[in-house]
Amino acid sequence: MAAVRRNDIPGANRWFDRSRAVLKDLAGHGPEGRGAIEELLLHPSSFVRLGAAATVREWAPDLAIPVLADLYLVEREPDASPSERIEICMSAKGLLYRIFGITSYDPDDLIEPLRRYGIVWPSQEERRKEDAARHDGLSGARRRDGP
C-alpha cells in the first residue's frame, strides 16, 4: 500500500477506513456481496486478502482462518516495506487470536486450534531453527560471493 510505504499515516488510515466501509457495504448485499468478498481472499495483494479475511471471519471463519494463518506465517510480497510486512503479520495474528479467544502472547497457542483446520503451525522453536538455517545459508552465500 503506497501510503504505508510513504509513511503517510493519515493516508493509510483513510485507505483503511474506506476499504472497511466498502467491505461492510458489500457484506450487506447478501450472498452475492459476501461471495464477492470471499473471492478477495485470493487477491494478489496481502492487504486486500487481510481486509477480506477480517470481514469474512464474521460469517465464514473456516474460509478466513487459512488466509490469516498464511498471512501471519508466510512472507508473501517481496516488494513490501518492512512496516507493511509487520502490519500484515501483526494484524493477521491479532485476528487469529480473536477468532480462537487466545489472550496470551504465545504464538504456540495457535498450534492446536489451527490443527483442527488442517493447518500445520510450527512451534516457536521450529521457526527459530528455520530462521537460523536460512540465515546461515545467506551468510554462506555472502562468503562465497564476496566479503
What does this structure look like?
The protein is mainly α and 147 residues long. The chain has one domain. It is built from eight helices and no strands. The longest helix is centred in the last third of the chain and has 22 residues, at 124-145. The radius of gyration is 17 Å and the shape is globular.
Count of helices? 8
Q: Decide which structural class fits the backbone.
A: mainly alpha
Low-confidence stretches: 141-147
Coarse shape: globular
Q: What is the straight-line distance between the termini?
A: 35 Å
Binned strand content: under 5%
Cα gyration radius (Å)? 17 Å
Range of helix content: over 70%
What count of structural domains? 1
Q: What about the largest sheet?
A: none
Keywords:
about 70% helix; about 150 residues; 8 helices; mainly alpha; single chain
Quick summary of this structure?
This protein is mostly helical.
Give the topology.
Blueprint: H1 2-5, H2 9-27, H3 30-39, H4 46-56, H5 61-73, H6 82-100, H7 111-115, H8 124-145
Helix pairs in contact: 2-3, 3-4, 4-5, 4-6, 5-6
